[in-house]
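Session log. Operator J.P. requested a structure for one protein chain; no other inputs attached. Running the standard single-chain path with token output.
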Amino acid sequence: ASDVYKRQAVSMSEVGLENAISVRLLKQAERNEDGCIYLRTRGGHRLAGARLLKWRTVRVKIRDEKVEIAKLAEIDENLLRRDYTALERAQAFAERLDAWAAAHPDRVEKVDGQARAKRGRPGNSAKIAHFLNGKPALMGFAADTASQAGLSLRTVEQALSMYRGISASQQARLHGTWIASNDAALRQLATVGDADEQAKVIDLMLEGKTKSVPE
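Structure written below.
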């Protein structure tokens, strides 16, 4: 078990489960052969802590909400509580933007095939509070979530740019390595436009022959 889950278990053993775990009732078309009719949407760490404590039951709250909204809430919760590497955090931003785009298609535009929050002033039907200095809010992040996670528009944009600049196959190689936690190295790797060259650079770095992308 990760240290995060262990800390959660220690806290729960002392104070109990203060906030119920949230679940969503699956629609018939979403259910599979395992017989499960509910899907957890919030409280992954709490559930993991309960399992470490060998609790047989936990308190849950059934929420009637759209899939996209539930996904946004889960990602936000993890951004605040999980010890992400730089690569994992960038992936979470990308997943959140996809979920936000699905929940708010009227506020998204496609640029080079990638979803992006629309720029400019809001239309008459939009809420002014969703826009900051003429720019959309952080993919719909609530202000308190953004503040607690230490987010800024620049932080999110840089992470997304880095994430999109490294191919999925190379990202799979990087998870669990020192590079995944090195934001500067990841950003430099993303600037290597040729896929074969990027793979060779990663080879050298993982082999310990260099820790510098420019080198």
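Operator note: The radius of gyration is 20 Å.
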